[in-house]
Write a structure and sequence with these properties.
Elements lengths: L2 H11 L9 H9 L3 H13 L4 H6 L5 H10 L2 H13 L3 H17 L32 H19 L6 H30 L7 H8 L6
Helix pairs in contact: 1-2, 1-7, 1-8, 2-7, 6-7, 8-9
């Protein structure tokens, strides 16, 4: 699932458990698991100048990167953090960890080739879903549309409750970019690629877009 979707959907689902001051914690927990991936991409792309194909086919799968990503996407570790927060009555930590858990639960059913180890370090098991949030070989066009609609509904639901003008503006921006990106990627781009009978890889999509949301 795309990173902004995690922030908006988590905020909608945890809104009854949070107030306006806690909303930032929910949003931060929604995007935190993906931050190491963005930092890795920035380092690989702009500092080491690696090509997209090598970034996502080789560098991303180095053990140190995979262990870092698995740590931030770990459901057991997030549950452990929630337990600490509960024991010490630290509501902010509990809310953060709940948002982390939701992030992983949303990712579980929509990652195929790029599945995370959500049960690390208890297990190295990866759930290889038949669905993908981006890859049309695994129903990516349908999954992306469902994600787009879910984010739109969550935005409409949460909009009156968001006090910040910046927050409202970001929500509108995300929905606008999703609509534009869906048309650009799943229609114009793929129709052009299909002329040469080839399905684009995630790295090729990144080259086309100039950046990629790898989560």
């Amino acid at each position: 699932m795309n990173t902004p979707s995690h922030a908006i959907l988590n905020l909608a689902l945890l809104s009854q458990a949070s107030n306006s001051e806690a909303s930032l914690i929910v949003v931060f927990g929604g995007i935190l698991p993906d931050i190491p991936i963005f930092l890795f991409y920035g380092w690989a792309k702009f500092m080491t100048k690696l090509p997209e194909q090598k970034i996502w086919s080789e560098a991303y799968y180095q053990p140190i990167i995979q262990n870092l990503v698995a740590t931030f996407h770990s459901i057991p570790l997030a549950m452990f953090g929630w337990g600490i927060g509960y024991f010490y009555n630290w509501e902010s930590l509990q809310l953060l960890c709940l948002s982390l858990i939701l992030h992983s639960l949303f990712d579980l059913p929509v990652h195929h080739d790029d599945a995370h180890r959500h049960f690390f370090p208890v297990s190295h098991y990866r759930f290889i879903s038949p669905l993908s949030y981006w890859d049309i070989k695994h129903h990516g066009r349908v999954v992306a549309f469902v994600e787009l609609v879910a984010v739109l509904i969550a935005t409409v639901w949460m909009f009156p409750w968001v006090d910040s003008g910046i927050g409202k503006g970001l929500m509108v921006l995300v929905n606008g970019l999703y609509g534009w990106g869906y048309f650009r990627f799943y229609f114009r781009f793929y129709f052009r690629v299909q002329k040469i009978n080839k399905t684009p890889s995630k790295a090729e999509f990144a080259e086309h877009e100039g950046a990629i949301d790898p989560n």
